[in-house]
Amino acid sequence: MKKSEKSKRAKLANLIMQAPLAVWMIAFVLAPFALLAFMSFMTKGPLGIIQYKPTIANYKEMFNPVYATVIKQSLVVAVWTTILTVLMGYPLASFIAKVKAKTSSLLTVLLMLPLWVSGLVVLYSFVILLNSSGVINSFLMSIHLIKEPLELLYNNFAIIVGMIYMFLPFAVLPMYSSIEKLDPGLIEASKDLGAGPVKTFFKVTLPLTSPGIFAAVILTFIPCIGYYMVTDMLGGGTSLMIGNLIYRQFTVSRDWPFGAALSMVLALIIFLMVFIYTKLGGDLDDLGA
Amino acid sequence: MSKTIVSIMNVEKMYGENHVVKNMNMNIAEGEFLTLLGPSGCGKTTTLRMISGFEMPTAGAIKVQGESVEKKEPYQRDVNTVFQNYALFPNMNVYDNVAYGLKVKKVPKKEIHERVMEALRMVQLEGFEKRRITQMSGGQKQRVAIARAIINRPKVLLLDEPLGALDLKLRKQMQIELKRLQKKLGITFIYVTHDQEEALTMSDRIAIINEGRIEQIDTPVEIYKHPKTKFVANFIGETNLLDAVVLEVNGDTAVIGTEVGKAMVQLDPKDKIAVNDGLAVSVRPEHMKFSKTPVDGFTIKGIVKENIFVGNLIKMMINLNDGTEIRVNRFDASDLSEPGELVYLYWDLPKGVVIKEKELIHTDSVKDIEGGDPDEEE
């Protein structure tokens, strides 16, 4: 009797403590998401008014070649960014994991430093670096390596450079944590059994740190595909990604139902990737969830 | 003994200021089971890691089969290791773990299969090929680790406290199995442990290491019967150690004086012991004797403190008047002294092992001391 009373009280305390978070999640995550899902099946009226007539036209619209190009462009940028970020981030992560604890925490802080600066400022500095009379071009021309300025800005190259800069820290951290967790005894065992450094890397190190790599892929690919600021500033408005497209539906085009439908598709892609990640044995904690 | 397979010559190892291995010299014979025994931090694992190539000697040389190994990377050496925590690859099943060494050497698939099966049979793990490592118990993981290490048919197998994580019963069983396996394969085993009983059970020879130095390297029987240093006497089995100074030498016996009385010991002419030399006597509890009446040549007295029954024997604790506790093991319960009784301690001369060490005690302080009277303590 007493015991059940006690557990009842514990349950109540638990409930009270979790309530604020639950309210927050319902009010600002679940409810808007439900609203978005609902809206995506509505019709756009004149002047951007939403008419409450159910339709799947918004989803059909995505097969329009114009939008298909946007989706393709998004995927190209996201895939390249992800590949390059992981390829650059892995050696960095394994370096941070190998050095002394003091140095590694210093390097981690340095790695996170760009995140403390506003993304807008960062991207403007890229404009200064990359534009035709910018730092890189004027330097290369002053040493007569090139005669004409290189087209570094307002193309996919600039977008990918900016994206990599934005997401590298997020990719390095999970890879660092899985490399750091790797038992150095396993590397020694592999060498002891006659495998050289290259074989050891591909047969032992890489498979055992793959959860970190996959987490890095998720943490790069997902924000990259929906991020519109980089495309806006470094793409010069010439190329659109899903993120930009959604942004425009809610602002310039005032087509909220279509924007909602695009958002749903984006969310679906993200859920799918996280689902595959967990199916492959990934840990949600490694994603910062 | 047959020919040397591993030789360690004047090897030193420094970690910064830390001198871990000091002027180590050792020859290990082909087919031998050699144990490096010592307390934790004594440099035994470092020595093993220098043979496997994971550590480089600061000075000196290591040769395997007459060939200097300094310039060889671990993966180029003809030795394999069974690691302390097994270090099995968690991303592979039992078969792939065992096959690893052959796969990286591009051995034909058919041969790999035959050799993996043979290795698994040898460690009694047939039928476990498809098991994941995470589904194996400690003892089974140990067997996989051994199978994985012997499949390359190394000249020398290094084992770093391989049984450390197993419970007592399993450990005893594995000790016997390992010894049997070593005989069957004829491979040289270099085995690191801090468990003296394990060392005594399995080894052909034991190298006792303390603070980076080899204190003694000998067969288990020799080490137990004739420890060369106080550390060895104390580390292997139980013993009673008495520091003393030589008072008289009469041919092959000597009268020695300790803090608690006089005693007699047998001398080895090789030790060249003279009057006033410092030495220590080690007497195992099973060899320490006592009498209720004085014994010729011995004046060490003590009070029986406790008799502890431990099944097959009775452990007696006898206190000397300087507080030293002497342990005596008796196998016959009818022949005891009761607590509080005064006894005279002595031993058969061959059982008092003389350990020659310099400057054990200042000679002046012991020379004139007689047995004292332990009764006054009570």
From TrEMBL, chain A:
Report the Pfam families cross-referenced here: BPD_transp_1
Coiled-coil region(s) at which residues? none
Q: What is its main location?
A: membrane
Output one GO BP term: transmembrane transport
Listed under GO cellular component are:
plasma membrane
Q: List where in the cell it is found.
A: Cell membrane
Q: Which InterPro entries would you find in this protein's record? A: MetI-like (IPR000515), MetI-like_sf (IPR035906)
Give the superkingdom in one word: Bacteria
Q: Where is the ABC transmembrane type-1 domain?
A: 71-277
Membrane topology, as annotated: Multi-pass membrane protein
Q: Where are the transmembrane segments?
A: 21-42, 75-97, 109-132, 152-173, 212-230, 256-277
In terms of Gene3D superfamilies, this protein maps to: MetI-like
Q: Which UniProt keywords apply?
A: Cell membrane, Membrane, Transmembrane, Transmembrane helix, Transport
Protein family: Belongs to the binding-protein-dependent transport system permease family. CysTW subfamily.
Q: What is this protein called?
A: ABC transporter permease
Origin species, per record, is Roseburia porci
**Source organism phylogeny:** Bacteria, Bacillati, Bacillota, Clostridia, Lachnospirales
From TrEMBL, chain B:
**PROSITE patterns in UniProt:** ABC_TRANSPORTER_1, ABC_TRANSPORTER_2
- Keyword Iron in annotation: no
Q: Does the keyword Transcription apply?
A: no
Q: Which domain of life is it from?
A: Bacteria
**Reactions this protein catalyses:** ATP + H2O + polyamine-[polyamine-binding protein]Side 1 = ADP + phosphate + polyamineSide 2 + [polyamine-binding protein]Side 1
Tell me where in this chain the ABC transporter domain is found.
Answer: 6-236
Instruction: Write out the entry's keywords from A to Z.
Output: ATP-binding, Cell membrane, Membrane, Nucleotide-binding, Translocase, Transport
Report the GO terms under cellular component: ATP-binding cassette (ABC) transporter complex
Which InterPro entries would you find in this protein's record?
A: AAA+_ATPase, ABC_SmlMolc_Importer, ABC_transporter-like_ATP-bd, ABC_transporter-like_CS, Mo/tungstate-bd_C_term_dom, P-loop_NTPase, PotA-like, PotA_ATP-bd
What are the EC numbers?
Answer: 7.6.2.11
PANTHER family in the record = SPERMIDINE/PUTRESCINE IMPORT ATP-BINDING PROTEIN POTA, SPERMIDINE_PUTRESCINE IMPORT ATP-BINDING PROTEIN POTA
Subunit structure, interactors included: The complex is composed of two ATP-binding proteins (PotA), two transmembrane proteins (PotB and PotC) and a solute-binding protein (PotD).
Q: What biological function has been recorded for the protein in this entry?
A: Part of the ABC transporter complex PotABCD involved in spermidine/putrescine import. Responsible for energy coupling to the transport system.
Q: Which NCBIfam families match?
A: potA
Query: What family does the database annotate?
Result: Belongs to the ABC transporter superfamily. Spermidine/putrescine importer (TC 3.A.1.11.1) family.
Task: Identify this protein by name.
Answer: Spermidine/putrescine import ATP-binding protein PotA
Q: Which organism is it from?
A: Roseburia porci
UniProt lineage:
Bacteria, Bacillati, Bacillota, Clostridia, Lachnospirales
